[in-house]
Amino acid sequence: MKLSRQLPLNALRVFEAVGRLGSFTRAGEELGMTQTAVSYQIKLIEDYVGEALFWRRPRQIGLTETGARLYPRVAEGFGLLTDALQQAMQTAVETLEIHSVPTFASNWLARHLGSFQLQHPNIAVRLQRVSKFREVGALDADIMIPWREKPIPGTVSQPLIQLDFTPVLSPTLAAKFDGITKPADLLKLPIISPDDPWWQEWFAAAGIPEPELVGTKLHSYEAQDLEASAAIAGYGVAIVSPFFFRDELASGRLVQPFPLALKARHPIHLAYPQSRRHAAKIKAFETWIRAALEQENTA
């Protein structure tokens, strides 16, 4: 009997979906199958392997030790098959889905993507601003650019850029308070996003360990580009990464009153699904973005 007939490919497809989604029901919805059919396919692959691949509890399942060893290879295999089919079809234009933390997306990536597309005209880019990243199985992204301590489960993740942070404000606001000559002078100003832990770290480094911050009436934005826009409008002083606002600082719309800048605890990472790490469009993007960042930092 041929290996292709022995190998339960449909059952493996179901196993990959259940392992990725952590649910028989959700896997069935994705694959257009009933839960009974999903359970049957999982039984087929378990019988084929000779061991249970999932432990089952009321309303809860998880990969067994054997299942956990098998899943990454199966996921990678289907990723390679997808890439092979796309190459065989010789698709004229591929789409690269990128999910990025908001300020990196709008204040750097969107401004530089034109050079990537000039180098790779057969790759169309879809860029989304994302604040919170979930497990890779819950995302459709090819590329993820998160700012977080731990890698996104299921991804290959490498540091992309290490940033620092420091207060910035509009020169008009600084003039209203007769200039800002020492760090304590900032405490006279409205503070944008006063709950941001960067504020406490920066003031402590400036010799003010327990500052009393006068917050603005605006809500915390969680996105540096919005905070910087509020600072440019004169609403208060923001604490941001100068890397994102070189044009605003060079033009004088923002000023950095003090040279003190602290390194962020975690770098921005470049991540992509483990199963797609050999995809040509992902490799092309990684090569391009690292070269573009290196060129900008050495300019």
Automatic annotation (TrEMBL):
Q: Which InterPro entries match?
A: LysR-type_TF_proteobact-type, LysR_HTH_N, LysR_subst-bd, WH-like_DNA-bd_sf, WH_DNA-bd_sf
One Gene Ontology term of the molecular function aspect: sequence-specific DNA binding
Q: In this protein, which residues make up the domain named HTH lysR-type? A: 7-64
- Asked if the keyword DNA-binding belongs to this entry, the reply reads yes
Concerning CDD domains, the annotation shows: PBP2_GcdR_TrpI_HvrB_AmpR_like
Q: Which UniProt keywords apply?
A: DNA-binding, Transcription, Transcription regulation
| Statement: the UniProt record of this protein carries the keyword Nucleus | no
> Entry's Pfam families?
HTH_1, LysR_substrate
For this protein, the record's Gene3D superfamilies field holds: Periplasmic binding protein-like II (3.40.190.10), Winged helix-like DNA-binding domain superfamily/Winged helix DNA-binding domain (1.10.10.10)
Please give a single GO biological process term from the UniProt record.
DNA-templated transcription
UniProt xrefs under PANTHER family: HTH-TYPE TRANSCRIPTIONAL REGULATOR (PTHR30537), HTH-TYPE TRANSCRIPTIONAL REGULATOR TRPI (PTHR30537:SF74)
Stated family: Belongs to the LysR transcriptional regulatory family.
Name of the protein in its database record? LysR family transcriptional regulator
